[in-house]
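We examine the record.

___
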Amino acid sequence: MIKVKMKKISKYLMAAMCVAALGLSATSYIKVNAAGSHLSAAPAGQPVDLTYAAEKALPAVVHIKYVQNSKVQMVEVESDPFGGFFSDPFGFFGNPGGGGTQKVPRRTQKKTATGSGVIISPDGYIVTNNHVVEGADELTVTLNDNREFSARIIGTDKDTDLALIKVDGKNLPTLPIGDSDKATVGEWVIAVGNPFGLNSTVTAGIISAKARTLRANGVESFIQTDAAINAGNSGGALVNTQGELIGINAMLYSQTGSYSGYGFAIPTTIMNKVVADLKQYGTVQRALLGIRGTDVHDYIDQEKEKGNEVDLGTNEGVYVAEVEENGAGADAGLEKGDIITSVDGKKVTKFAELAEVMASKRPGDKLTVTYLHNKSKNTKTVTLKNAQGNTKVVKNADIDVLGADFRPVTSQQKQQLEIQYGLEVVKVSGGKMKEAGIPKGFIIQNVNDTPMKTVDDLQDVVKKASTSREPVLIIKGLYPTGKRGYFAIEVSE
């Protein structure tokens, strides 16, 4: 069985890290009262008892089996040196006898993998990683008590590497959701998941750092832990001593593919917003400040390497490298070279902390930004916007918005028009296709530079474009006569 490989992060961290041994005494420990204070101080040499946290977490952490069925795909191969006589004697797949390459059908192998997930509601909503479920044809969820369910995907978000799936169940065990903002460095946590196919595994450690940026996802502010996280732990739970979920395990730092010191979890402050948006809108409502930036400390180091002396008035915060025209940042008066020091009254020392706050916002929300301009402090409150520059709810457009029916081209059409793929417009009943003047019989070959081989390909491109900064489909194809045609369709509401 092929395991879900968790993302390897070595480029952005130091090459070697020490593995810390965790020893738990069986005869002497301090018990944590779940109803007591958030943190309980333990005398030196005596570890915290984590049995309560494990008892709460294990029933709510599930095993996810991923299946991608075998499919026939067209792949490019080298043409036969003898003119294709032995591999394609009649030239059905193009370029007969001419050397070079040609496209031939190949059946892919069935793929299986495993990961983890966390039940967050009694009616069967489960949070996991996007990379655990992406591309799956079948998902099977197995509970700690060995009950099995088929799952469907409610929504996914690549930028945060989160996904929400659903099983049809009632009174399922859940894990209470804690506030990751209250988690502190040095606090004891457990990681619960299914590493290497070993179901219901618990490892322990501490929070090693917060607001880590690894440049692996679009939105990041990871909790770093030395609790062992391995392949198969993806989508599992990071749990505090209160038995509360504070993060979704997502990555490990490794040069070998196995645990070697640190794992990384997506905090619940980000998870809560993503889950709520996927439930309500089907896609994440992402608010933008309209700037590009970096940690002040990193900017100063870069300038020193160039031999430049820098005095920004602070060594902490977010250095503004670029301000988007007409964005929320521009409305706040931000300019290149300014330093953001706090948002909504919360101190910001690095870019990941700003990203975490922004991940909890929606277009139309207000944000109070405090920043230094030429070392002078300024505070402005602005309205955040979406990627399209307004405050409207952004929805994934469905293929129905095009107002047409499609089917893959036939073998006869391929041969007649000398093409390898395409979607024929078999009916135009209204909508965007009619507005653009695309007729019945037109063959779509590429949309936004993506080959159109199946109707699912078109669906994917429409959804992606509808939530992008430029919600436009650039359609290229052929009329039945072979004449080429080009169209542009706007898919935003």
About this structure: Residues 1-45, 82-97 have pLDDT under 50 and may be disordered.
